[in-house]
């Protein structure tokens, strides 16, 4: 893909950003929400049911409702939902501002378990009510701590339609800014008692800078099963894994192909599109979208599912791409019927007839009508197939188009593809010497083409067999693409260095925390070859396999969850590494010592007092703490089913046992999250201070805990208003 195409892919991500980051304010008041070309185009196409076009346009001009999603994989999801319903939604239902009754947030009818909600409240309304201001602060704080995501409703659809299971290998091809990636991670961790699911998510984006947005989203979820990579999605490299001592090609069970698009479904949020929209946008993007989709199905395992989605309503970006993909697949792909997968969702079936219009207003119904002067911009794949029997067999009506006026959402298109067989162009291998079979060549290191994957045309098509015959080119290209050395753009990342089982760093860690024999030492990595290791991270064994076998062909931006950080004073307490809160839920199942079981009242003390004396803890926790020496500890709350008034989910915090005191090392927003779960109201007063009116701070003692001073800047304590 050329530089111009790559830049276009970066620039056309506006629509995806807009729907992923559905916020709470409405700006762009001066922009006139009119575009005659847009109206005439969609009227002529007839995508909107008869008699509904005015409703459709009226909805497009209305601000988009804000939507939130509770992170489903966290064991705290039910507690957050309970908090939302009991502390905020109930009171909001009775609220009036300027004589007008405020509409309470509503659950999205089609999202499982009431985990997604939408509201029409604007910033102006929020500023007029202390209750709504507290609600807003709650949402902001919980979003920062990863327990809630703000995301447009339609953006939540593709991950749901993928039907993720914990063992699935998943590729998100155009992932930034990462809201859907977060959903995928949540689904992998459906069972919180399993620290390392067998599956993983590879989240890719072409834009190096946007990859760091992706990292920020993923890091909120503290998963050891996510890797962020930086590649052009249309030629993302084929990866290898070691399976039973043999080098195999990695095929993905699930692929999310949410491609760059013109974004006309985001008009309600991305108001700039009103001025900029022309039909040329779709014509320019169709080829890129098709190349990305082709690369996706090549890497999909037989039996796997790929969801293709855009936030455009235009058939050139939607059904035309799907139809071209199905036609090229020669039966290897089929559209899945997802009509029963999301009960409550209103959608329009895909169309099997459409026309194409230039920005000058010229219409074309068939490729044969396109003048030669236009044939570089307009391509045959932009039109419906002319063979009516073939068209009917595609079942394009199984595609789903979401119209804004049906359920007060943005516009969206989604299609679910199932792979039935390898893609036909992947079956055309280079000719081999008669005495060399593909299997023996792969085992003996014979012909380079022999060991190529069946679904890796970007490798296979440009490699000659030993017989000197080049295999057939990809049907979308005139000739095989030449092999190119991978160019690394953007920042140079620190290396990912795995520790060995006998690394000296484990000696004190093993004894200090009494790690269980099944602790996967080989999954621990650091980011430096030389010098002292500052932080230790963990990944799943599957991601370790990926990293070790693809270091030369893959640009990794980030992976792993931090589990230990070096404590410069820690060695005098028996271990140079303290526990990190980010990785506590991953690491704790393997820790057998330095655990203090705490009560709800203990947690309140630990999260609201800076350095409480050990005696501030209740008797049971106090007795456990006295038996431990100074250093890093786990503070563990185990729910009591017989007391439903208390949180019914496990809570694990990192702490430090000082000489006479104890403290929790928990980031500010997580601290507030846990306090709210325990029934303590935390909010910012008008001066911006964190305020809470029930608990006393107690008397502190300067530096009683003997932990390094730098830790103190990372925590924030509740103050009396």
Automatic annotation (TrEMBL):
Amino acid composition bias (Basic and acidic residues), ranges on this chain: 701-710
Molecular function, one GO term: tRNA binding
GO CC term, one of those recorded: cytoplasm
Protein biosynthesis listed as a keyword: no
Binding residue positions for S-adenosyl-L-methionine: 174-180, 205, 232, 258
Enzyme Commission number(s) from the entry: 2.1.1.203
Keyword Nucleus: yes
Cell compartments where the protein resides: Nucleus; Secreted, Extracellular exosome
Catalytic reactions of this protein: cytidine(34) in tRNA precursor + S-adenosyl-L-methionine = 5-methylcytidine(34) in tRNA precursor + S-adenosyl-L-homocysteine + H(+); a cytidine in mRNA + S-adenosyl-L-methionine = a 5-methylcytidine in mRNA + S-adenosyl-L-homocysteine + H(+); cytidine(50) in tRNA + S-adenosyl-L-methionine = 5-methylcytidine(50) in tRNA + S-adenosyl-L-homocysteine + H(+); cytidine(48) in tRNA + S-adenosyl-L-methionine = 5-methylcytidine(48) in tRNA + S-adenosyl-L-homocysteine + H(+)
Matching Gene3D superfamilies: Vaccinia Virus protein VP39 (3.40.50.150)
A Pfam family recorded for this sequence: Pre-PUA_NSUN2
Superkingdom of the organism of origin: Eukaryota
Keywords on record: Methyltransferase, Nucleus, RNA-binding, S-adenosyl-L-methionine, Transferase, tRNA processing, tRNA-binding
Residue intervals passing through the bilayer: none
Gene Ontology terms: biological process: tRNA methylation
Active site: 311
Biased composition regions of type Polar residues, renumbered to the chain: 437-446
InterPro entries per record: MeTrfase_RsmB-F_NOP2_cat, MeTrfase_RsmB-F_NOP2_dom, Pre-PUA_NSUN2, PUA_NSUN2, RCMT, RCMT_NCL1, SAM-dependent_MTases_sf
Annotated stretches, region: Disordered: 1-25, 429-455, 691-710
Domain SAM-dependent MTase RsmB/NOP-type per the UniProt entry, residue ranges: 56-420
Family: Belongs to the class I-like SAM-binding methyltransferase superfamily. RsmB/NOP family.
Descriptive protein name: tRNA (cytosine(34)-C(5))-methyltransferase
Organism for this UniProt entry: Scophthalmus maximus (Turbot)
Biological classification of the source: Eukaryota, Metazoa, Chordata, Craniata, Vertebrata
Gene it is expressed from: NSUN2
């Amino acid at each position: 893909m050329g530089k111009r195409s790559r830049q276009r892919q970066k620039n056309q991500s506006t629509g995806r950003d807009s729907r992923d980051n559905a916020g709470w304010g409405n700006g762009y008041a001066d922009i006139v929400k009119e575009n005659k070309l847009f109206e005439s185009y969609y009227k002529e196409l007839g995508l909107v049911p008869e008699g509904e076009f005015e409703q459709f346009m009226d909805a497009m001009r209305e601000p988009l409702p804000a939507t939130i999603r509770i992170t489903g994989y966290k064991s705290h999801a039910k507690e957050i939902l309970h908090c939302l319903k009991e502390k905020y939604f109930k009171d909001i239902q009775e609220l009036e501002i300027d004589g007008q009754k405020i509409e309470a947030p509503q659950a999205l009818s089609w999202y499982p378990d009431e985990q997604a909600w939408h509201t029409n409240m604007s910033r102006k309304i929020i500023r007029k009510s202390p209750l709504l201001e507290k609600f807003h602060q709650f949402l902001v704080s919980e979003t920062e701590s990863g327990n809630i995501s703000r995301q447009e409703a339609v953006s939540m659809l593709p991950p749901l339609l993928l039907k993720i299971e914990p063992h699935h290998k998943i590729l998100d091809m155009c992932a930034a800014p990462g809201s859907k990636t977060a959903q995928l991670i949540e689904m992998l961790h459906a069972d919180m008692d399993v620290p390392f699911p067998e599956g993983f998510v590879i989240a890719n984006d072409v834009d190096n800078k946007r990859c760091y947005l992706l990292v920020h989203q993923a890091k909120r979820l503290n998963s050891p099963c996510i890797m962020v990579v930086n590649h052009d999605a249309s030629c993302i490299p084929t990866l290898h894994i070691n399976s039973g001592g043999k080098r195999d090609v990695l095929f993905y069970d699930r692929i999310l192909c949410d491609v760059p698009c013109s974004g006309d479904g985001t008009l309600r949020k991305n108001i700039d599109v009103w001025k900029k929209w022309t039909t040329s946008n779709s014509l320019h993007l169709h080829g890129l979208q098709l190349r990305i989709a082709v690369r996706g199905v090549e890497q999909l395992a037989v039996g796997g599912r790929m969801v293709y989605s855009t936030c455009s309503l235009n058939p050139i970006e939607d059904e035309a791409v799907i139809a071209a993909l199905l036609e090229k697949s020669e039966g290897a792909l089929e559209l899945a019927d997802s009509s029963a997968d999301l009960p409550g969702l209103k959608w329009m079936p895909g169309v099997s007839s459409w026309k194409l219009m230039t920005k000058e207003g010229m219409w074309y119904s068939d490729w044969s009508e396109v003048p030669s002067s236009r044939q570089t911009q307009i391509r045959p794949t932009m039109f419906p197939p002319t063979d009516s029997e073939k068209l009917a067999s595609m079942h394009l009506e199984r595609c789903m188009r979401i119209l804004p006026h049906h359920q007060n959402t943005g516009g969206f298109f989604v299609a679910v593809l199932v792979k039935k067989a390898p893609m036909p162009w992947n079956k055309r291998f280079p000719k081999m010497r008669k005495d060399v079979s593909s299997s023996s060549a792969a085992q003996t290191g014979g012909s380079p083409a022999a060991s190529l994957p069946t679904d890796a045309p970007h490798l296979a098509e440009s490699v000659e067999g030993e017989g000197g015959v080049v295999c057939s080119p990809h049907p979308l290209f005139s000739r095989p693409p030449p092999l190119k050395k991978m160019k690394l753009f953007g920042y140079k990342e620190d290396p990912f260095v795995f520790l060995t089982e006998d690394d000296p760093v484990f000696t004190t860690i093993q004894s200090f925390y009494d790690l269980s024999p099944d602790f996967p030492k080989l999954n621990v990595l650091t980011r430096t070859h030389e010098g002292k290791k500052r932080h230790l991270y963990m990944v799943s064994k599957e991601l370790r396999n990926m990293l070790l076998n693809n270091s030369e062909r893959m640009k990794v931006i980030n992976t792993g969850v931090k589990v230990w950080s070096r404590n410069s004073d820690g060695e005098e307490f028996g271990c140079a590494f303290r526990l990190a809160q980010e990785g506590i839920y991953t690491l704790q199942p393997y820790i057998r010592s330095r655990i203090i079981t705490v009560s709800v009242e203990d947690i309140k003390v630990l999260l609201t007092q800076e350095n409480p004396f050990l005696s501030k803890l209740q008797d049971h926790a106090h007795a456990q703490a006295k038996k431990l020496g100074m250093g890093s500890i786990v503070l563990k709350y185990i729910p009591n089913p017989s007391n439903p008034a208390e949180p019914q989910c496990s809570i694990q915090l990192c702490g430090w046992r000082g000489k006479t005191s104890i403290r929790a090392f928990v980031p500010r927003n997580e601290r507030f999250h846990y306090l709210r779960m325990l029934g303590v109201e935390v909010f910012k007063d008008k001066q911006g201070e964190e305020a809470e009116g029930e608990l006393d701070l107690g008397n502190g003692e300067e530096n009683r805990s003997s932990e390094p001073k730098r830790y103190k800047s990372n925590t924030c304590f509740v103050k009396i208003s």
